[in-house]
């Protein structure tokens, strides 16, 4: 099976290298890797953040393991040349509309959570974020001058009912496979897109009478995630709200360096990446927590490669490595990126 490795920028290459080591040590079967440049690294090498050759490898591959993109050197470039366009382009071009972001507290990390340990212990949820629509991709957008000569920026938040229905189905199916509870998060008290979102989610719910559906406004959801996260099992939400809530959820389980993700199309094809970015502030220092990427690799084995047994072994090894006290700085420890990965490999047994 062909895996496209897209390390990207900043800490991306550091954490991808560790995930590849873990895949080998865990006995993942029949993997062939092909590495390609993406993001700021690709821009600097070839003038485009998502070169055609990279897109071609991503299309040919059975799964994609992605590090992170984002480079301060590129912040002043025109938007279409910025590194972040690469991940947005991959999601859109490959039709990866369903983004699964599980947040589960490893019991050993109760003290690393931003929440009180007794609250943090209850966290085992998944955020299902719509990934190819919303204000991220809506047209028109741009910068212009108003009649008064003022600079004005504008974006368009939009969803059509088919986009909402297909992500809602992923939410309901996921809820069926878990506790049977689904919370749809929107801003239907203000936004037309959210009113449609709520209507369509309710329509789809008719096909899932076993699922207990609730609705919550996103501002309240942000508050409830901190107040009583144990009430959530599956959250389904739009692209922008899901982006923000998942970074928040990561601190509830200890660190942004802990949250993996799967971005799926309607088949088994997927892109797997940590939810964090290129972290330029710690890049090149051996400080990055590799666990989000290692756990993303485990998701890849489970969802795209049919190797759930190996995925289970990796997740158990992460748990054991944490139990034995190994932690990177974001979790309050002093293990380097490589030492953290060594601990996971040792725990594979
Ligand atoms: N999918 C992606 O590629 C992706 C995701 C988010 C942000 N970005 C990009 O990354 C760049 C930096 O963005 P940002 O600073 O807002 O977010 P970030 O996630 O890169 O970093 C936020 C903070 O978390 C820390 N952090 C992140 N990952 C960590 C890890 N694995 N271990 C330890 N600490 C970690 C960083 O050091 C930083 O202090 C920007 O260019 C942004 O657009 C890319
Ligand atoms: C880099 C950026 C475009 C991206 C997003 O907003 O989707 C990131 O924050 C993420 O969460 O994957
Ligand atoms: Mg984000």
UniProtKB/TrEMBL annotation:
Function: Catalyzes the oxidation of 3-carboxy-2-hydroxy-4-methylpentanoate (3-isopropylmalate) to 3-carboxy-4-methyl-2-oxopentanoate. The product decarboxylates to 4-methyl-2 oxopentanoate.
Subcellular localization: Cytoplasm
Gene expressing this chain: leuB
Reactions catalysed, as given in the entry: (2R,3S)-3-isopropylmalate + NAD(+) = 4-methyl-2-oxopentanoate + CO2 + NADH
HAMAP family assigned to the protein according to its UniProt record, in alphabetical order: LeuB_type1 (MF_01033)
EC number from the UniProt entry: 1.1.1.85
Site (Important for catalysis): 136, 187
Cofactor: Mg(2+); Mn(2+)
Alphabetic keyword roster: Amino-acid biosynthesis, Branched-chain amino acid biosynthesis, Cytoplasm, Leucine biosynthesis, Magnesium, Manganese, Metal-binding, NAD, Oxidoreductase
Name listed for the protein in its UniProt record: 3-isopropylmalate dehydrogenase
GO molecular-function term, one example from the UniProt record: magnesium ion binding
Quaternary structure annotation from Swiss-Prot or TrEMBL: Homodimer.
Binding of NAD(+), residues: 277-289
Species: Tardibacter chloracetimidivorans
């Amino acid at each position: 099976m062909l895996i496209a490795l897209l390390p990207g920028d900043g800490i991306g290459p550091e954490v991808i290298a560790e995930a590849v080591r873990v895949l080998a040590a865990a006995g993942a079967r029949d993997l062939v890797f092909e590495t390609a440049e993406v993001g700021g690294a690709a821009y600097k090498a070839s003038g485009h953040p998502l070169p055609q050759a990279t897109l071609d490898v991503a299309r040919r591959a059975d799964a994609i393991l992605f590090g992170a993109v984002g480079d301060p050197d590129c912040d002043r470039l025109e938007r279409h040349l910025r590194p972040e366009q690469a991940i947005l382009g991959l999601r859109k071009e490959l039709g990866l509309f369903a983004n699964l972001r599980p947040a589960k507290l490893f019991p050993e990390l109760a003290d690393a959570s931003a929440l009180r340990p007794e609250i943090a212990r209850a966290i085992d949820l998944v955020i299902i974020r719509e990934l190819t629509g919303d204000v991220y991709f809506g047209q028109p957008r741009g910068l212009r001058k108003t009649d008064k000569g003022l600079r004005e920026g504008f974006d368009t938040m939009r969803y059509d009912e088919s986009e909402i229905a297909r992500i809602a189905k992923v939410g309901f199916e996921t809820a069926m496979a878990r506790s049977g509870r689904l919370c749809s998060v929107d801003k239907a008290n203000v936004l037309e897109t959210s009113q449609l979102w709520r209507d369509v989610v309710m329509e789809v719910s008719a096909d899932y009478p076993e699922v207990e559906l609730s609705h919550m406004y996103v501002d309240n959801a942000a508050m409830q995630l901190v107040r009583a996260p144990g009430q959530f099992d599956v959250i389904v939400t739009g692209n922008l709200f899901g982006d923000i809530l998942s970074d928040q959820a990561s601190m509830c389980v200890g660190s942004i360096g802990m949250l993996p993700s799967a971005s799926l199309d309607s088949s088994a094809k997927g892109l797997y990446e940590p939810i964090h970015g290129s972290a330029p502030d710690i890049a090149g220092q051996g400080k990055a927590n590799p666990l989000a990427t290692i756990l993303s690799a485990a998701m890849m084995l489970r969802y795209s490669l049919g190797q759930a047994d190996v995925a289970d072994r990796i997740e158990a090894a992460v748990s054991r490595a944490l139990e034995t006290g190994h932690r990177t700085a974001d979790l309050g420890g002093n293990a380097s990126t490589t030492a953290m990965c060594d601990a996971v490999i040792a725990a594979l047994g």
